[in-house]
Amino acid sequence: MTMMPAALATALTEIQCDEIPVPEMEPGKVLVKTSLASLCGSDLHIVYMGWNAYEFPLEHGYPGHEGIGEVIDPGDSDYQEGDLVLTAPNIWSSKVFAGYQLIDPQFLLKLPTDVPPAHLLMVQQLGTVVFGARKLPPLLGKTVVMLGQGSVGLFHDFLLRRLGAHRIIAVEPVAARLEAGRRMGIDEAIDVTGQRATDAVLDLTNGEGADVVIEGVGSVETLNQTLKMVKPLGTIAVFGLPPTMERVPFDWDTFFRKRLDMYTTFGAQDEPGLPAFQLATDFITRGEIDMAPFVTHQFPIEKVQEAFDLAYSKEDGALKVSLTF
Description:
By secondary structure, the chain is an alpha/beta fold. The chain has two domains: 3-125 and 275-324, Alpha-Beta Complex (Quinone Oxidoreductase, Chain A, domain 1), CATH 3.90.180; 136-264, Rossmann fold, CATH 3.40.50. It has ten helices and 15 strands. Strands 3, 4, 5, 6, 7, 14 and 15 form a seven-stranded mixed sheet that branches. The protein has a six-stranded parallel sheet with strand order 10-9-8-11-12-13, sandwiched between helices. A two-stranded antiparallel sheet has the order 1-2. Helix 3 crosses helix 9 (275-285) and helix 6 (194-204) runs parallel beside helix 7 (220-229).
């Protein structure tokens, strides 16, 4: 029996590497050998905070959903053996943190072979940002606040300028990440959090607030903070995931009085043909965005706990932490 490495989250904040059998081929599926997988903020919300984690241990390979690999058995799909593919399953079928994956072909995207694989690994998250950006209101001449300058925030910086945003204000307490935001072309950098950050945004907008605020952190505090930073009749895009399965306090009064529009971003992987991920691939292959600065740390799957700990701590200049197989 052929074995493979696979991550297993055994309890909150605890994840290890096991050896389990390679899955047997099933009708309607594609067998992919994983080469790289990256850690997303949603993985941390699940493994470290318990969002969408009803009982531990979780399934082997879960919650990984950002990966690339080689098609080993295409089944009856249109893929060919040896194809390099993005593996971008939705959250309900995510098992990317494993040496091999059985995956529905709708969650695969063929990738070019003349771009560094570590750069192509960023297609999934950039594609999710592309997907979410389509819901933004017209940004020409508008001021946008981006809460967080991890890879999600930085990819938003990249797209916001292309969508015509006049002024991009980034809020991020980690110096290395804020510096990355400056390299991406933000106009104003705020290196504090909480009320001081809110006050700074209001000072920069003459007390009015921003036209659009994008929440890319995923905390109760930052969710409610967006309501204070945005101007009346403004828009809030909630990109960050909830930090818990429990109900959270919400400043309904401010939301109501300001007559705000608020929406979430979810479901990019379920879009037929994965068009947002294809556009992200095009951005990377055409050199419109340089992914080299994002690929900061790699760990072998056997050190998955160290990888998660670093991604959670945000230390050592970590922007995107990935696993090798």
